[in-house]
TrEMBL record:
Residues 1-20 form the signal peptide. This is Carboxypeptidase. GO terms for biological process: negative regulation of chaperone-mediated autophagy; proteolysis; regulation of protein stability. GO terms for molecular function: serine-type carboxypeptidase activity. It comes from the Eukaryota. SUPFAM superfamilies: alpha/beta-Hydrolases. Keywords: Carboxypeptidase, Hydrolase, Protease, Signal. Its EC number is 3.4.16.-.
């Protein structure tokens, strides 16, 4: 894959065999997304790097390796009574020159510390919930990274970015990349568009955006989820034939599955529910589910609810009990729901008193959780299609990388593929394999004006992809 010097290609990258979980979090969420005046006297954001040193993490409990970078944890004031928690790790390379990444997990209502402590950060929480091991594939080997908690709106995200620069002014002119996963497919394009619109007032050196298994379009997500399920042998042939002949006039391709009424609509809803509650792992079809306690099933529910189009929500959940309907249970050979995510170690670590003290969490804040159903329920969806925002970012000469794991069912690669193809950009390089070592790691599609699509998601391969993307080198 080749990039121009100034105006790079939009690349769609498909990665074979999903490594990571599109798994989302909930931080101290309704607590870390601080409302009221609990931090008013403790944390104020001032200009000229004031506050940077008070956010410095002096000693982080559980580390079993020597650090060669600095790290910070504190709060960013995004309104008169609203704060967002952040955790910042500087580059292991040259922090004075290396790019600056802002990372956002999805939800909505999930914590970006999932990305820090179990995916791409420099330390990984071990199963004992006490130890931090070194992550050999950390993205901070070549970039400084800011992880921002519970990001409800693009306006608050944008204000958090500006307030970060107020506290860490040294990084003010660095090349900036906004990155994330899953519902970050909404957060990031809307944030990027705000950055573009605000360049006159607050210049930010935005160079690119990278999104993993992004929720880019609500309708496409439902439509492609059904086709993905059938293509992987999950849907019974009888159900598929009924849907095709009675609901889509003999052709499912091009059929608006998210907009079908009554019995056909319920059939689609039941298929979508089955993908999440059949005992299959929605984040990696071929990976076992973790039979962990009930808290994780609520976590999955929080994530799933964020991926359902607004017009389907009222039909999937009854207004009184919010219980799920299973009209096709017997036909879909339904089985009991098994929570697939086990974040016990991470939750344990984040709630250790010595850890809270080390990362400057006030005593009046409550228990930390990986995802907040309270935030999710209050969140008002306003955007079902992010293409106008992506186009604005591309028009501003920022590069875009959309990468998808080919076994992720939550936000599948067919969604990303269709989304890219309908942006109206010239196809530069059709689907072709990309290599990691001597093996095919996935496939890439390159579009004009800076868009790359690449399905895949494994730690070593993604480490390679992101480093190449930041360096503006071929993948």
């Amino acid at each position: 894959m080749f990039f121009c010097k100034f105006q790079l290609f939009l690349v769609f990258l498909l990665i074979s065999s999903t490594f990571g979980k599109s798994k989302k979090f909930d931080s101290f969420l309704e607590n870390l997304v601080l409302e009221g005046e609990s931090l008013q006297n403790e944390k104020n954001n001032n200009e000229n790097n004031e506050g940077e040193e008070e956010d410095a993490i002096v000693s982080l409990p559980g580390l079993n390796f020597e650090l060669n970078f600095k790290h910070y944890s504190g709060f960013l004031k995004v309104s008169s009574n609203h704060f967002l928690h952040y955790w910042f790790v500087t580059s292991q390379g040259n922090p004075l020159k290396d790019p600056l990444i802002f990372w956002f997990n999805g939800g909505p209502g999930c914590s970006s510390l999932d990305g820090l402590l179990s995916e791409l950060g420099p330390y990984i929480v071990e199963e004992d919930g006490k130890t931090l091991n070194k992550n050999p594939y950390s993205w901070n080997k070549y970039a400084s990274i800011v992880f921002i908690e519970a990001q409800p709106t693009s306006l608050e995200n944008y204000e958090a970015v500006k307030q970060f620069f107020a506290r860490h002014n040294t990084f003010r002119n660095h090349s900036v990349y906004i990155t994330g996963e899953s519902y970050g497919g909404v957060y990031l394009p809307t944030l990027g568009a705000r950055i573009v619109d605000g360049q006159g007032e607050f210049p930010i050196n935005l160079k690119g955006m990278a999104i993993g298994n992004g929720y880019m379009n609500a309708k496409m997500n439902i439509d492609t989820s059904v086709r993905f399920a059938y293509g992987h042998g999950i849907i019974d042939q009888k159900v598929w034939n009924t849907l095709e002949m009675e609901c889509c006039r003999g052709c499912i391709d091009g059929c608006d599955l998210s907009g079908l009424g009554q019995s056909c609509g319920r059939m689609v809803e039941d298929i979508f529910e089955f993908l999440w509650h059949s005992g299959l792992n929605p984040y990696d079809l071929y990976r076992d589910c973790d039979p962990s306690p009930g808290r994780n099933s609520m976590k999955m529910e929080v994530i799933k609810r964020g991926l359902i189009p607004s017009r389907m929500l009222h039909r999937i959940y009854s207004n009184s009990t919010k219980t799920l309907r299973w009209n096709l249970k017997s036909t879909l050979h339904g089985s009991p729901s098994v929570p697939c995510l086990n974040d016990t170690a991470l939750t344990t670590y984040m709630n250790l008193p010595e850890v809270r003290k080390a990362i400057h969490i006030p005593d009046n804040l409550g228990h930390w959780d990986i995802c907040s159903d309270d935030i999710t329920e209050k969140y008002q969806k306003q955007i079902d299609d992010t293409s106008p925002f992506v186009k604005k970012i591309i028009k501003a000469h920022a590069r875009v990388l959309l990468y998808y794991g080919d076994t992720d069912m939550a936000c599948n690669f067919m969604l990303g593929q269709e989304f890219c193809s309908k942006l109206g950009l010239k196809l530069v390089v059709g689907k072709q394999p990309w290599m990691y070592g001597h093996q095919i790691a996935g496939f890439k599609t390159i579009y004009a004006k800076g868009l790359t699509f690449a399905p895949q998601w494994r730690a070593p391969q993604m480490d390679h992809v992101i480093s190449q993307f930041l360096l503006n080198h071929p993948i």
